[in-house]
Amino acid sequence: MTNPNDDLFSSERYDAGISIRREVMGDDFVDAALERNAGSDGETLQKHITATVWGSVWSREGLAKRDRSLLNIGMLVALRATEELRGHIKGALANGLTRTEITEAIVHASGYCGAPAALSAMKVAQEVLVAELGPLEEESDEA
């Protein structure tokens, strides 16, 4: 049986998407997601997201990658999608957002999404920020 999405997965959108996804999220993150889903029902979803979200949405002109990362933080806080947020915090750093900007995005989202959502998000963000940048007191380039 032929998968009706096979053309989509081998398209220019998938190629563009995998390139952007790797640039933003890092090879280790992308490889782990693809390997975790290889040969399973989730493989189709991974390919679909790569082609559509990364290949069609993230590749659009009009917003810089750092702006898209900032938006993602707010949306993922609102959705309480903390597992997705974990990867996108790392991606936000790769796209040039600072620790302060990431923290402020979560503080800002608390006013619209509520304290419980922001607290859950900050827990995840803190883990990633410490892993990537070290503890806050060690950082000297931001106040």
UniProtKB/TrEMBL annotation:
It comes from the Bacteria. One of its GO terms (molecular function) is 4-carboxymuconolactone decarboxylase activity. InterPro entries: 4CMD/NDH-1_regulator, AhpD-like, CMD-like. It is an enzyme of class 4 (lyase). Residues 45-127 form the Carboxymuconolactone decarboxylase-like domain. Pfam families: CMD. Coiled coil: none annotated. This is 4-carboxymuconolactone decarboxylase. Gene3D superfamilies: AhpD-like. Keywords: Lyase. Its EC number is 4.1.1.44.
